[in-house]
Design a protein that fits this description.
Helices cover about 80% and strands about 0% of the residues. By secondary structure, the chain is an all-alpha fold. The chain starts with a helix and ends with a helix.
Length: about 300
């Protein structure tokens, strides 16, 4: 789950016209659909017996191969050249931790509920900004985060039937994603494509080191048992991940972040539809109330911040 890579890297780039801004919104909506497909395909693959570490490895390795194959002919070695490699490494580690937490949470939770909980991450960034980014503290941000957290409590209520391990990993994923977003601020001088490549490199290298600890014999046995359909879907995760983030980069180059912020919550809609389409899972009325509290607080604080910056 590489989402919001472009959101922070290209947050200061604005669209130059109304049509350009509309294109940005469309690209962001399309990226939400693609990234929901990534989450769904990863969840389905693990449900069919795909090992977590291997699914994550294919997701990163295929992403890296695609980005390098598409952009290296034009950019050459500069595609890999970072002005802040240590920060790229930190961000890559946080992103890998978030990805593994996301996959673990998805193996226990319906996709819509997980996605809603994960959307705590942007609000956590706002709350941490005074200490980690040197921004002025604002009561409005704390109120928005509090309302969103109450929304999470509504979703994970005891009668909601959500697995507690899945909820814990979803909350961990939200915290790691928030850390990833903050770390992305520190690599803003690098080209967004360079950040995409470094994300793929760090994840692929670390997972290549971790895979032998899973047990090569066990890994071979589990791989041999996977049908071709599972292999195909597992390989597709790299394609959907790379495409989703390339669409995000394009979206934030055509429209300002303040305009696109409310539309990021379209991913909850696409995740709900995907979860219903594949597993026939659909949130009940009370869960929708919690989702609405999270989305509403995020959209409200985005509008509030935009008004006070205008």
């Amino acid at each position: 789950m590489f989402r919001a890579n472009a959101r922070d890297v290209a947050a200061s780039r604005s669209g130059e016209s109304g049509s350009s801004a509309l294109l940005g919104v469309g690209l962001l909506a399309l990226s939400s659909v693609v990234l929901s497909c990534l989450d769904a395909s990863s969840k389905w693959t693990m449900g069919e017996g795909g090992p977590l570490l291997l699914v994550a490895w294919f997701r990163y390795a295929m992403h890296l191969v695609l980005v390098v194959g598409i952009f290296m002919p034009a950019r050459g070695r500069s595609l890999f050249r970072s002005t802040v490699p240590h920060r790229q490494l930190l961000r890559g580690v946080l992103m890998l931790g978030a990805t593994l937490s996301v996959f673990m949470a998805l193996s226990y939770l319906p996709q819509a509920q997980f996605t809603a909980i994960a959307f705590l991450a942007p609000l956590l960034v706002l709350c941490a900004a005074p200490w980690l980014l040197g921004e002025r503290p604002r009561l409005s941000r704390w109120i928005a985060a509090g309302v969103a957290f109450l929304g999470v409590l509504v979703i994970v209520r005891p009668s909601g039937g959500l697995h507690p391990i899945g909820v814990l990993f979803a909350l961990l994923a939200a915290c790691l994603l928030a850390g990833q977003f903050i770390a992305t601020r520190g690599i803003a001088r690098d080209h967004p494509l360079t950040s995409l490549v470094w994300s793929g490199m760090v994840g692929t290298c670390l997972l290549s080191v971790l895979l032998p600890f899973y047990g090569l014999g066990r890994l071979q046995a589990e791989l041999a048992a996977l049908p071709p359909t599972v292999w195909l879907v597992m390989l597709s995760t790299g394609l959907s991940g790379a495409l989703g983030h390339l669409l995000q980069i394009a979206a934030y180059r055509h429209a300002p972040a303040s305009m696109l912020a409310p539309y990021t919550y379209l991913q909850i809609v696409s995740a709900t539809f995907t979860g219903w389409l594949v597993w026939r899972q659909f949130p009940d009325t009370t869960t929708w109330l919690g989702i609405a509290m999270i989305c509403g607080s995020g959209i409200a604080i985005a509008f509030w911040e935009w008004r006070h910056k205008a």
